[in-house]
Write a structure and sequence with these properties.
The radius of gyration is 22 Å and the shape is globular. The protein has an 18-stranded antiparallel beta barrel. By secondary structure, the chain is mainly β. It is about 5% helix and about 55% strand. A hairpin with a 4-residue loop joins strand 16 (about 365-380) and strand 17.
Length: about 400
């Protein structure tokens, strides 16, 4: 059944706003103060410097931006919890293309200035083993390869949605989500700032003790005005770890999905997704090798428009959209984590380096290769410092580029 999108959104926001205003409240002023004090103020600020040096542009991009979020989450009352937070993104420099400022002589850094409602949601837990959440919310499913918040960008992706989570059977989880609107990272002022439509997500998981987690999913995307991205994707994934000897452990991931046109998509295709990954963990070290393939038929490539895209296929973000010939990403990752010697023993330093080799899935074209370097310091539970560098050497029409990031995040 296809809902009228405007009517559904009106009902969602009316319900959330009524709940925020008229949820049962303590009778006395002192009780109201106590109730508010039992809630939690949400504060998150991130400063980031990002630079891009990309072939084909007369200028390098240099962005100094600050993202602030301020919100409040109530204490539970009558099995209801309400949450609201506002978000602002500000530019401290303007020598970059933020996708809406018209500075097209600079490479893109998609962090436009904005002041927006980030989340407004109501959660109900009155039914055993069932959680219901309605309103504007963050949704991350699995490893976010298909559904995620894209939290790397200053304006994260949120969803106007109704969500149900069931955990009533040992080791088993079930999630259903209906989405009316996707609020993308480009912001409200952008012509591509939203996906509207009828989106249904089904995700089932089962933990096998000592072996790993098996996930089956079905993601049905009916997007208004984006018919070529309206797809039905059905897939399976298995992720696990296993001890070997002494401090040596094994980790592994295997996944497959099939994608076909859905709703008003005029194309006729069947595209495959494959992922195979494995590696070893030893003391503070981790070594991983893998292959991820997104199919293409020469006209259209396997699409993941609601994913956390920055987490896959390299930090340089060259392949946010799958080329029509598809892409095969063969990669290796070396990671190291330790207690930072100048800080408390509970605080971590994480170092990671990646190598990616990209090829077309159809034909014999080489699409380039990339090196990524990432460092993160958890200064304490509220402060975090990140630095990263990516360099992509392009071929087959994909421009070479290098990117640098430095960010400081404070959250409470």
């Amino acid at each position: 059944m296809r809902f009228n999108a405007l009517l559904w959104r009106s009902r969602v926001w009316s319900g959330v706003c009524i709940a925020l205003t008229f949820c049962p409240q303590p009778a006395h002023a002192d009780s109201v103060v106590d109730f508010l004090a039992a809630g939690h103020v949400l504060l998150d600020t991130r400063y980031r410097y990002e630079s891009v040096d990309q072939n084909g542009f007369s200028n390098n991009a240099n962005a100094n931006t600050v993202r602030e979020r301020l919100g409040y989450q109530t204490a539970p009352i009558s099995d209801l919890t309400a949450l609201i937070d506002l978000q602002a993104t500000q530019h401290l420099s303007n020598t970059f293309n933020d996708t809406i400022n018209g500075r097209t002589s600079y490479p893109q850094i998609p962090d436009p200035e904005a002041f927006e409602l980030n989340r407004l949601q109501l959660t109900y837990t009155g039914v055993p083993d069932l959680t219901a959440t309605i309103g504007r919310q963050v949704i991350n499913l699995g490893d976010q390869r298909f559904i995620g918040a894209s939290a790397f960008r200053q304006n994260e992706q949120t969803f106007d949605a109704a969500r149900l989570d069931y955990t009533g059977l040992a080791g088993f989880t079930a999630t259903y989500v209906y989405i009316d609107r996707v609020n993308r990272v480009f912001g409200d002022r952008s012509a591509v700032g939203h996906f509207d439509g009828n989106i249904q997500l089904f995700n089932l998981g089962y933990d096998i003790s000592g072996v790993g987690k098996f996930t089956a999913y079905s993601y049905l995307l009916d997007l208004d005005h984006n018919s070529l991205l309206s797809t039905a994707t059905y897939g399976l994934q298995f992720v696990g770890t296993a001890p070997l000897i002494d401090e040596l452990g094994l980790h592994y991931t295997a996944g497959y999905a099939r994608q076909a046109p859905y709703a008003q998509n005029p194309e006729n295709f069947g595209l495959d997704y494959w992922r195979l990954e494995g590696g070893f963990d030893y003391e503070n070290w981790s070594l991983t090798a893998g292959s991820e393939v997104l199919d293409g038929n020469g006209i259209i490539g396997f699409s993941t428009p609601l994913a956390t895209l920055h987490a896959f296929q390299g930090d340089a973000d060259v392949f946010l959209t799958t080329p029509p010939q598809g892409i095969a990403d063969r990669y290796a990752k070396l990671g190291y984590q330790t207690n930072f010697f100048l800080l408390d023993a509970s605080r971590k330093l994480t170092l990671t380096t990646w190598y990616h080799s990209f090829d077309a899935d159809q034909g014999s074209s080489t699409l380039g290769h990339e090196f990524d370097f990432d460092a993160a310091v958890e200064i304490n539970k509220h402060w975090r410092l990140d630095a990263a560098y990516a360099t992509y050497n392009g071929t087959a029409g994909f421009a070479s580029r290098s990117k640098t990031w430095l960010s400081l995040t404070v959250s409470y």
